[in-house]
Every structure is written in structure tokens, then in C-alpha cells.
Design brief:
Blueprint (H helix, E strand, L loop, with lengths): L10 H11 L8 H11 L7 E4 L2 H11 L7 E4 L6 H8 L3 E4 L11 H7 L4 E7 L8 H10 L3 E5 L7 E2 L2 E2 L6 E5 L12 E5 L2 H10 L4 E2 L16 E2 L10 H11 L2 H19 L5 E2 L7 E2 L5 E5 L4 H10 L15 H4 L9 H9 E4 L7 H15 L1
Parallel strand pairs: 2-3, 2-4, 4-5, 5-8
Antiparallel strand pairs: 1-9, 6-7, 6-13, 8-9, 10-11, 12-14, 14-15
Helix pairs in contact: 1-8, 2-8, 3-4, 3-7, 5-6, 9-13
């Protein structure tokens, strides 16, 4: 089965991991700092906290922001469930706002209408790798006296009006799952502008531990002494995975270029295929294309999905609107609440896109899709 996305691993990646395995530190060592520093090179210098997954990154970001009972988070339904679930697990309520018809990113007007005096965070999702409209969303967050969070699981390496993802919002979360634009196997990170929030994020990912002598309440207890001043969890990303991440970030510019080449080739060779709407790009956006998300028209998405899968082409649907999962339906969320997102979902289909995709495999995808729809 030709996958819709997969990792690209080379000998340098393998050597980086093997080097850690031969060394003294498997976790909490120098490779963690090296990876976080390399990542900050892609966020415009905004410091980063590495964690064990993109989901952990969201949990850490919400916790650092003080999200809890009584808080409200406004976000997009066109995302994986973790964007909302991590806030809800902290006790917050989630309000889903509709998306833009062309990009499936959070609609600033819809987000503005969804905010209230309880809104603590507005969370955008950079669908398929195209950054959301952070200029407009920043104003929405400011009016609500809320923090702006970017769920950038799809978009590391992207820019919006020449500003890199990671520097566009108060906090930004990344995912390094194998299908993403760079991988650590499993992993994630949070980029945080504010020094106080950054400190809270670092402590939350390590049980809330305090070791600095000037912050201890019992500094004379002994050299072994450490304290927990606020509760956290163990979300530390180990050195062995950070080494892979640093190596991968060294190829991120190539990954972006190769994905862009494949997207341009899809756009050219699918331009005359009937019943398919190709992805849009807004002025000011320079995406790191994570997904090649077409829209299959005339109610034929299920047919195309089934027939392409039967042909060994692993197309995917990204995503069911989050509130349509039974866990949300059981809480009273109802279908139809975000009609633009619903319409997008009914037509969306992700074609294979990853750096090692060959042109012959891409031709196979195109020819199969053309044969089904012609």
C-alpha cells in the first residue's frame, strides 16, 4: 500500500541515534538542549520545550497558560481530537468555531463570535501546513483578553507574511510523528514567547520539579534536594529521539522544497481532472505542505476513497470534525454546528505526499484518480 505520508530516514539520522546509544546519556542529556536550540532556529528564535508527542505539547501549553475549570477554549473542528481533548482534560470547556471555506483554517470572524468573557485561549490549527490568519486571529485573542495558541502539528517550516510559524502566536505546538514534516519517532514541542509561560511549560513537562537553590523553600536540606511547587507530568523527550530530531531538522529545508515540488506537479497534472478541487493558497502564506488535500465533488469522495484504496493507494481523510466523535456527542455537541467544516469534511481526501514519494508513484496516483473520475 502506498502510504499517504511517511517518514524519510537517511544514514545521518541512523548515525545520530546510534551515537547517542553509544554514549552516556539516553535522556535528560545534551541532545535535548541541542534539539531545542535547532528547533528555535525555525521559530525565529522563540525558545522551545521538547516533549513526548504533539498531544503532550498541547497539554503542556494549556497547562502553562493556566487553562482549567471555568476556562473556555475556542478552536477549529478540522483537527485531530487532541487539540480539544487536552484542554477538556484540564477541566476547560471547548467551543468549536467554523473554518474558512478555502483553507479549512479557523475563521477569524467565527472565532470572534465564539469568544466570551470566559475565553482563555484561542487555538488555531494550521491545516495541511498552511498557516492560519494570525494577524486577524491575534486581534480576536486580544479583544477576548485571551492567549493565542497555534497548533502547528502540520506546519513547522511554514511562514505567514514572512514570519515563521513558532513566532506568530503566544504559544505554538509541534508534532514529530512519523507522518509529519520532520520526525523524532514520537515527539513534540512547544514554542513559547513569554518567559513566565516558558518556565511553567518546562516545569510541567518534568513533574513540576524545582532544583534551583534560589527557588527552593528548604535550600539547606542537602545537595540531593528537589521540590515540587506545582504538579506536572513526565513528558520529557529522551536524547535518543532528540538526536534524530536534530538530524531531521538539518534536512527540513530540503523536505519543504521537495514537498513543494510534488504539490506543484500534482497541481499541474490534476488541473484538468473533472470533479476535483485543488488546494488553495492565500497571499502571504508560504506553506510547508504536510497534506495534499483535494476536495472530491459531486458526492463521490467515498467511492474514490474505496477504489483508490483497492488499487493500493493509501489515500486518507483528514479529519472528521472533532465534535462528531461520540465522546463529544455524548456531551451535547451536535452535527451541523460548523457547516463550512462539515462541507469540507464531506469532500476532503488526502493524496500521498512525502519527500521520498517518487514521480512514478505520483503518476500512479494521478492516473488512478483520473481513471476513476473521468
Amino acid at each position: 500500500m502506498l502510504a499517504y505520508g511517511r517518514q524519510s530516514i537517511d544514514e545521518n539520522d541512523i548515525a545520530a541515534v546510534a551515537g547517542v546509544l553509544r554514549g552516556d546519556w539516553l535522556t535528560t542529556g545534551p541532545e535535548v538542549t541541542a534539539f531545542e536550540d535547532a528547533l528555535a532556529g525555525w521559530t525565529g528564535g522563540v525558545p522551545c520545550v521538547s516533549v513526548t508527542s504533539g498531544t503532550a505539547a498541547l497539554h503542556v501549553a494549556y497547562a502553562a497558560a493556566g487553562v482549567g475549570p471555568g476556562s473556555q477554549v475556542v478552536t477549529s473542528p478540522m483537527t485531530f481530537v487532541a487539540t480539544a481533548a487536552t484542554a477538556m482534560l484540564l477541566g476547560a470547556s471547548v467551543v468549536f468555531a467554523d473554518v474558512c471555506e478555502d483553507t479549512a483554517n479557523l475563521d477569524p470572524e467565527a472565532a470572534d463570535a465564539a469568544t466570551s468573557s470566559r475565553t482563555h485561549v484561542v487555538t488555531a490549527v494550521d491545516y495541511a501546513g498552511q498557516p492560519a490568519d494570525y494577524d486577524a486571529l491575534g486581534k480576536v485573542a486580544d479583544r477576548a483578553d485571551a492567549l493565542l495558541l497555534a497548533d502547528a502539528a502540520h506546519s513547522i517550516g511554514s511562514t505567514w507574511n514572512d514570519v515563521p510559524v513558532g513566532a506568530l502566536a503566544d504559544m505554538t505546538t509541534f508534532s514529530f510523528f512519523p507522518t509529519k514534516n520532520a520526525t523524532t519517532g514520537e515527539g513534540g514541542a512547544v514554542a513559547v514567547k513569554d518567559a513566565g509561560l516558558l518556565d511553567r511549560a518546562r516545569r510541567f513537562r518534568c513533574h513540576g520539579l524545582v532544583r534551583e537553590a534560589d527557588r527552593l523553600r528548604s535550600p539547606d536540606e542537602g545537595g540531593w534536594h528537589q521540590e515540587v511547587h506545582s504538579l506536572g507530568l513526565n513528558y520529557r523527550l529522551p536524547d535518543v529521539l532528540c538526536a534524530l530530531g536534530t538530524s531531521q531538522l538539518g534536512r527540513l529545508a530540503f523536505f519543504k522544497e521537495r514537498r513543494a515540488q510534488l504539490v506543484a506537479r500534482y497541481n499541474e497534472l490534476l488541473a484538468d481532472v473533472p470533479g476535483v478541487r485543488l488546494p488553495a493558497v492565500r497571499p502571504g502564506a508560504d506553506p510547508m505542505w504536510h497534506l495534499y488535500a483535494v476536495r472530491v465533488l459531486d458526492g463521490r469522495r467515498r467511492e474514490v476513497y474505496d477504489r483508490m484504496r483497492a488499487a493500493g493507494i493509501g489515500v486518507q481523510v483528514n479529519y472528521i470534525p472533532a465534535y462528531r466523535h461520540p465522546v463529544f456527542e455524548d456531551l451535547g455537541y451536535r452535527r451541523g454546528m460548523c457547516p463550512v467544516a462539515e462541507s469540507f469534511y464531506e469532500e476532503q481526501l488526502s493524496l500521498p505526499l512525502f519527500p521520498d514519494l517518487t514521480e512514478s508513484d505520483q503518476d500512479r496516483v494521478i492516473d488512478t484518480l483520473r481513471a476513476i473520475l473521468s
